[in-house]
Amino acid sequence: MARVRLKYYAVLREQAGRGEETVETGAADAAGLFEELAARHGFSLGRDRLRVAVNAEFADWSRTLADGDEIVFIPPVAGG
Amino acid sequence: MNGFSFSRGPIDPAALAAGLADVAAGGFVSFEGRVRNENEGREVRRLDYEAFEELALKEGARIVAEAVERFGIRGACCVHRLGELGLGEVAVWVGVASGHRAEAFAACRYIIDEVKHRVPIWKKEHYLDGDSGWVNCERCAEAAAQPGHAHGHGHPHGH
Fold it and tell me: Is the interface score ipTM higher than 0.90?
C-alpha cells in the first residue's frame, strides 16, 4: 500500500468535488490509481484522454507509486 | 525579461515588450491571445483560467528555452493570465526579440502553439445562456460517457 496525495484541476476538480485528497492505495501504478479514483468519483474522461504527473513532472501511466508521491491527472489542456 | 510566467492581473503588453528591449534585435514580434465572444457557435460571456502552476511554469520555461535554442533568437517571454477574464482581455502574450524578422515570427508561432498544446492550463467558458463548460473536456467526454454518469457540475447535457 502507498499513501499518496492527489491534486485535482478543472473538470476533474469539479467532478471529484474537491481540490485535493490523500488516499491509501493498493494500485500497482498510476494507471491503477486512476481507475480506482475514476470509479469513486465518476470521472467522465477516460484515461486515454489524460496525462499524469508525479511530483510535478509528467510521468508514464506505468509509474509505480511510493509513499508521499503527489499525483495529478491532467485533463486535455486549453491554454491561450 | 525572458521566460514564462503567470499573471493574476491584466497583462501590460507595452511593459512586457520593453522588457525585451535589445539594440541588437532588429526584429520584434508579439502575439496577443484575446478572449473571444464565441466558441464553436456559442456566445461566450467570460472565461476562467486555472493552471497546475508548478508543472506549468516548468513546461512553459522549457518551451521558451526550446525556442531560443531552435531559432537562435535573442530573447523571448510568455505571460498567461489566470482567474476570471472578460471579453477582449489579453489571455496570453508572447514576445520575441531577434536579429532578424524571420526567426522572430517563427519563434513566436512556436511558443504560442506549444503553450496551447503542452502547458497544463484549463479554460472554462461561461456562455450567454448561463451554461458553462471546460474547453476540450466536456463535449468529447459526453460522447464517451455512459448514460446516467455523475456529471458533477450542475448543468444538463446539451452543450
Answer: yes
